Amino acid sequence: MSSTIQKIVLDTTYILPLYGIEVDGLKDLEKNLISLLNGNNSKISLYIPSVTMLEALYKLIREFKLQDDKNILNRYPMATRSIVENPVLVIVNPLLHPEISNIALNIRSEGHTDLFDCLIAGTAIFHKAILVTQDNELERIIRNIPQYYNQQILDWKKFMQHPSFQKLE
Asked: How much is the pLDDT for 1?
């Protein structure tokens, strides 16, 4: 059995439950996410691009506008503190890394319109990490860029089946 640490970059979708935002269609997301964040898998190093937290903030603001409940906005600093202080997570600011930004802009120029997704993917590619995303269009575009063709990309279901993820009770 290999003792190699597998780097994983999570797309915004997977951190949304930390902000109290429900994600439909992903079985056991919250339970497995909590297991990962508790450090229950020493074979994985989780990378969180800082732009995922900004994207979560935009989603909270949208939810706030719809419900006019200030408590929704209070979730952001609480969840962000727990993310930043979690020793299992590696927070990466892709805007401060020219190489990551260059990869992201390359993906953007190939047709992916969501700059947040491009920066998240750029982070995974730069760090030679598995990108976990539900975005099939992003995967298609990355596969069409020759230098990124071999980038490992998994959706949540495939990630849960990946050998580097061990389900722990």
From this structure: 43
Cα separation, 112 vs 125, in Å, equals 15
Taken as a whole, the chain contains a residue count of 169
Question: pTM higher than 0.85, yes or no?
Answer: yes
Q: Summarize the confidence of residues 70-95 as an average pLDDT.
A: 92
Cα angle 146, 149, 150; round to 5: 135
Question: Which amino acid does the sequence have at 35?
Answer: S
What is residue 166's predicted lDDT score, i.e. its pLDDT? 57
Burial class (CB in 10 A: 0-12, 13-18, 19+), 4: exposed
DSSP state of 7: E
d(CA 145, CA 36): 31
Q: Catalogue all structural domains in the chain, each as residue range(s) with its CATH number.
A: 6-97+128-134+153-161 (3.40.50)
DSSP, collapsed to helix, strand or coil, labels residue 54 as: helix
Region 115-132 average pLDDT: 96
